[in-house]
Amino acid sequence: MIDTHVEEKLCRLFEKNGIEVYNINSNRFKTNTINIFFQDNLNKDTVALNALFPSVLRRGCKGLPTIKDINLYLEKLYGAVFDCGIVKKGERQIIHFYFEYISDKYTNDSQRNFEKAFEFLMNIIFRPELKDGSFNEQYVQQEKNNLKMIVEGRTNDKIQYSMERCYELMCKEEPFGLYEYGTVEQIDEITNEKLYEHYKKKIASLPAEIFITGEIDEKEVAFIKEKLSLVERSIPQKLNSSIILKCVKDVREYEDKMDVNQAKLCMGLRTHVQPADNDYYALLVFNGLLGGGMHSKLFQNVREKAGLAYYVYSGLEKFKGLMVIASGIDINNKDTAQEIIMKQLEELRSGNITEYEYEATLKSIKTGIMSLKDSQLYVVDFYLSQLINGTHDTMETLVEKINRVTVDDIIKVADKIQLDTVYFLTSNTQESNK
Amino acid sequence: MNFDTIEYKKYNELFYRYEHPSGLNCIVIPKKGYYKKYATFSTQYGSVDNEFIIPGENEPTKVPDGIAHFLEHKLFEQKDGSVMDKFAALGSKPNAFTSFNQTVYLFSCTDLFHENFKLLLNFVQNPYITDESVEREKKIIGQEINMYRDDPGWRVNFNLLKAIYKNHPVRYDIAGTIESISEITKETLYQCYKTFYHPSNMLITVVGDVDHIKVFEQVENCIQTSEKASEIKRIFPNESTDINKSYIEQNMPVSTPIFYMGFKDSNLDLEGAEILRYELATKLLLSMLMGKSSRLYEELYDKGLINSSFEMDFSLEKSYAYSMFGGESVNPEEVQDRITKEIKLLKKQGLDEDTFKRLLNASKGRFLRQLNSLENISRSFINLYFKGVTMFDYLEVYDKMKFDYITDVFDSHFDIKRMALSVVKQK
Q1: What does UniProt give as the signal peptide span (chain B) (predicted)?
Q2: Which one of A260, A327, B55, B342 has the largest count of C-beta atoms within 10 Å of its C-beta?
Q3: Which candidate in B108, B112, B133, B147 is best for mutational testing of the A interface (most A CBs within 10 A)?
C-alpha cells in the first residue's frame, strides 16, 4: 500500500505564451491526466465553429493522420484515453482536450509516458492533419454531419433536453440561451476555409490553462516549457463575465409537445447571486434545502408525500446565477405539482426550516464537496471553475464558509430568487395513458 | 476473528475477506488516502428471478415481473419512517439499484462511516411493508417506468434482448410494467424477501480508507441470523440456442435511428476463472473486429454510418450471455451488412496475432484505470463474486491469455445465425 498521503492542492507552475500551467500533485491514482482548456465567449457567430473544430482535430494530426492511427497509438500506450470537446459554463464556451494514461509505476518498461502524452496533445492541438493548406475536406464534411446529428438528437434525452430548453427559452436574449453545439443552419454555413481560419485565430489567441494531475518532476516541467515556447500565440483576448443581474417582469410560460409517456415540468429561476458574492454560500444551502437530495423539501413533498414523481430536484448554474427545478410527472398533474413546488419555495422564504433539514443539507453538501477529491476530473473541474469565477476557495474553505451560513442568510438569499420561466414538455395527445 | 488477506503487490492492491457463520461474506478493499467510503449490502436476486422453489417447499412460486425492483424501493421504508432521512442526517448518500441478477443497497460518505454502516446493515435486514405504502409506491414506480418508456437508448437495448431471447426473463424490463406491478402485494413482497434476503445469499463490500477489523466486528455484531440457509432453486424457462427473431423495430421521436445488435451466446457452463477468460476473450474480439483501431470502424466512420456514440459490450451470467454493440446510424441495416461481411472475411482469413497482443495490453491498462474508482471496484466485485470469482483474478487472466483460445471463441461466439438487430427510428 502507498502510505504517503499527499494533500492535493492546485499548484501554479508557470505561464508561457498566454498559457497557464498548473499541477495537482497526487499519487493515489493508477493514472495521471492532462487537461487543456481554451476559453471563449459564448457568441452566436462563433458557437458552431468552436464546437466543430475540436472534432476535426480529433480526426488526425502530424504523424497520426487518421482515427485508426490515433487509436493504435493510444492502445500501444497501455490503453491511454484521449478525447476532446466543448462545455458551456455560464456564458463561456470552453474547448477541452483530455488525456489519461497509466502512471509509470504500473507499466513494465522505462518509457516516460508523460512526455509521450504531452507531445501527442501538442500535435493534436497545434499540428492538425492538413491538405492543400487547410483541414482535410473529408473530415470537415463528416464532422459537420456528426455535429448536426448531435444538435438534432438533443430531444432523445428528455430529462436533459427539457432543462436545457427551459434555460434556453428563459435566456433567449442573452448569450447563455445559445446551445453550445450551435444550430443546424449555423453548421451548414461553415466552409473548410472559414473553419481553418477560425481555428488558427482562436488557438493563437484564446486564454488557455493546462492542468496536470499526478506527480511531475523538474525534467518534465522543463519539457512542457520547451514545447509551449514553440507555439506561436498573441496576447490572449479578454473574456466577458456572465450577465447575472437581470430583473424579471412577468413569469413566462412555454409548452412543447412530443410523443411521450411522461411529462417534464421545469421551472427556471434567477438567483441574482454571483459566485464571488458572500450570498453565494447561502445560495448553495438554499438549493440543498429545496431540492438537493432525499432530505430536501422537493423530494419529501413532491415524491414521498404526494407520490407525483420518480425524480424531482433543483440544481444551480452557478456561473450564470440560475436555478432550475426539474421533475418527471404524469401529464395531468402539472398544476398540482407546480403548486406543491411553489409552496416549498414559500416555506424557505419564510424561514420554515427544521433543524434536521438544515443539518442534513450542510452535511450533504460537505460530503459532496469532499467526495470530489476522489476523481481527478472533478478536482480539475473544481479548480477551473474557481478560475472562471475569480474565486479562490479550496474544498476545505468552501466547506467552512457553507458551515457558517445561518437561517437568516438563507431567508435573505431566498428573497432575491425569482421565478422567471415555466416550461412544460408534454404529450401530443394530452391524454393520460394510464 | 478469522479473515483472509489477498494481496496483489505489483499493483498496490489487496482485499480482506471475512465469512460470517450465516454464510454471509464481507469484503473490505482498502483504498488509502481516498476521502469517500463506499459500502454495499447486496443480494443475489434480480429481475430474472421471477420463478423459484422456496427452500423447504416443493412447488415452484411464480411472482409478477418487476418485484425485485419494487422490493428495493420498499426496503427504504422503516417502521419509524424512511431510512433515507437517517442517512441524510449523517450527511451520506444512500442509494440502491436492481439489475437482472442483483439488488444492491449502498451508501457513500466521507465521515461517520460506522454510524452509516450500522444503518445499512439494519435497514436491509428489517423490512417494514404496509398495504398502503405498497399502493403509494406503485404510483412512483409507475412514473419511473414511464420515464424509461420515453428513453430511446433504454428501449433499443431491451428490444434487442426481446429479439435474442424467446423465453428467458432477461427479455423483460427490470422495473416490470404498469400492469405487472399492479399485481404486487405486501404478502408477495415479504415472501420474496424471506427467500432471497437470507445472509447466505448476500454479500457486503466496503471500499475506502477504513479499518477492516472494525468493519468485520460490526458485521459480526449486526447480522441477526447465524444459521446457513439451503439453496434457492431458481427456475428458468427452456431457452434454445437460436434467437427469437433477427430484427425488431420501434418508432419513437428520434432524429437519427439508434441501433443495437448482438449475438446470443449459449456457452453457459463455465466455472471460476474460465468465466473471466471467456468474457475477456469476447471483449477483445469485439475490439479486434470493430474497435476504434480496426479497419471496419474506420470504414464505417468514414462512410458516416457510425459516429462516436458507437459502443460494445459482452454480458455473461449463469443462465444467459450475449454481446451487444451499436449507437446512432443513418442506416443500421448497412452497418449490419458490413459487420456480417467482415466476420465472414475474418473467419476465412484468420485473426491477426499482433492486433490481439496490442489490444490485450491496452485492455489491461484500461482495467487498471478502473481501479481509480471506488464505485467501479465495488460494482465489479459484486457482479463477479456471485459468479465465484473476484475482479482481481482478471490480472492473472490477462497474463495467461492465449491467441489460440481467442481464435476458438471467435468461431463459437460470432455465429451469424445468432445475430439480431434492434432499431429505434422515427415513424
Answers
A1: none
A2: A327
A3: B147
pLDDT at B394 (0 to 100):
94
| DSSP annotation of A353 | -
Cα–Cα distance measured from residue A329 to residue B189, given in angstroms and rounded to the nearest whole number: 26
Could you tell me the domains of chain A? 10-230 (3.30.830.10), 252-427 (3.30.830.10)
Q: How many helices (H) and strands (E) does chain B have?
A: 15, 17
Provide the angle, in degrees to the nearest 10, between the axes of the packed helices B393-400 and B273-290. Answer: 60
Which domains, from first to last, does chain B contain? Answer: 3-234 (3.30.830.10), 247-426 (3.30.830.10)
Of residues B34, B149, B363, nearest to A374 (C-beta): B34
C-alpha cell at A416: 432575491
What percent of chain A shows pLDDT beyond 90? 88
Cross-chain Cβ contact A76/B361 below 8 Å = yes
pLDDT at B142 over 80: yes
Interatomic CA distance for residues A337 and A334, integer angstroms: 5
Q: Alpha carbon A56 to chain centroid distance? A: 21
**Could you give the ipTM of this predicted complex?**
0.91
Q: How many whole angstroms separate alpha carbon A96 and alpha carbon B282?
A: 33
Contact B253 A329 (CB under 8 A): no
What is the distance between the alpha carbons of residues A198 and B99, in angstroms, rounded to a whole number?
A: 48
Q: Please list the active-site residues of B.
A: 72
Q: What is the pLDDT of residue A7?
A: 59
Whether residue A4 is predicted with pLDDT greater than 50 in this model: the reply is no
So what's the pLDDT on residue B93?
87
Per-residue model confidence (pLDDT) at position A106:
86
- Cα of B129 to nearest chain A Cα, Å: 15
- Chain-chain contact of A149 with B256 (C-beta, under 8 angstroms): yes
The string of DSSP codes covering B203-267 is: EEEEEES--HHHHHHHHHHH----SPPPPPEE------SS-S-SEEEEE-S-SS-EEEEEEEE--
**Interface with B, mutate which of A137, A261, A355 (most B CBs under 10 A):** A261
Interface contact B147, partner A, CB < 8 A: yes
Give how far the C-alpha of residue A382 lies from the chain's centroid of Cα atoms, to the nearest Å.
10
Convert the pLDDT of each residue in A134-144 to its tens digit.
999 999 999 99
Residues 370-399 of B with CB under 8 A from A: 371-374
pLDDT digits (tens, 9 = 90+) for B284-308: 999 999 999 999 999 999 999 999 9
- Pure H helices in A103-240: 113-126, 137-152, 158-170, 184-188, 192-205, 218-229
Residue A71 identity? N
